[in-house]
Amino acid sequence: MMLPTLAIGLGLAVTASQDFTGNLTAFLSFLLLLLIPWGAVNLVDFYLVQHGAYDVPGMYIRGGKYWSDPATWTHNGVNLKVLIAFVIGVVSGIPAMSNAWYVGPVARHFSNADLSWIPGMVVTSVVYLALVRVGRDARGKSFTAVASQQQTSPL
User: Fold this and answer.
1) What DSSP state is assigned to residue 17?
2) How many H helices and E strands in the chain?
C-alpha cells in the first residue's frame, strides 16, 4: 500500500518541482473554482433561507428532515438542490478561469484575469435561491409536514 503511494507522490513531486509556483497557483485556482460556489450555497442557505435556524440535533437523526424531505429534494441525506446549484456554479466559472493549465475565453478577454469567483458566487446563489422556491407556498412554508414551523422566508 505504501509503495504505490510513494511512487505516485514521488512522480508528482518531481513533475511539479520544475515549475512549483505555477503549479501551486493553478491548483489554488481550481480550489477557488470549487470553494466559492460551495461557500455561496452555505451563506445563502444560512442567511437567506434558514435565517440561522438549523435543527442541529435533527442533522444526526436518520429519519429526520435533513435525511429525507421531498420539498428540499433531500434523499438519504443528500440535498439535490444544493448539488445542482453547486455544479451549475462551478461550470459557470470555468469560462472565466485563468491559470497555468487553462485560460477560459472570458478570462482571455480580460487580460487573463481569473474572474471565476464572480460567476461562481453569483450564479450559484441565484440558482440555489430559485431552486429553494420550488416546493414552497406563497407564505414561504414547505409543502411537507416535516418542515420546520419557523420557516417564514418569502423564498
Assistant:
1) G
2) 5, 2
C-alpha distances in Å from residue 16, one per residue of 13, 20, 64 = 5, 5, 46
For the chain, what percent of residues have pLDDT higher than 90? Answer: 41
Average pLDDT, whole number, for the chain?
84
Phi, psi of 75 (to 5 degrees): -135, 125
How does DSSP assign 51-111, residue by residue?
TT---TGGGG-TTSTTT-BGGGTEETTEEHHHHHHHHHHHHHHGGG-BSSS-B-HHHHHTT
Can you tell me the distance from the alpha carbon of 32 to that of 20, in angstroms, rounded to the nearest whole number? 18
Handedness of CA 121, 124, 126, 129 (dihedral sign): negative
- pLDDT greater than 80 at residue 75: yes
Query: Grid coordinates standing for 8?
Result: 505516485
Q: How confident is the model at residue 89 (pLDDT cuts 50, 70, 90)?
A: very high
Distance, CA of 78 to chain centre: 13
**C-alpha to C-alpha distance for 90 and 46, rounded to whole angstroms:** 20
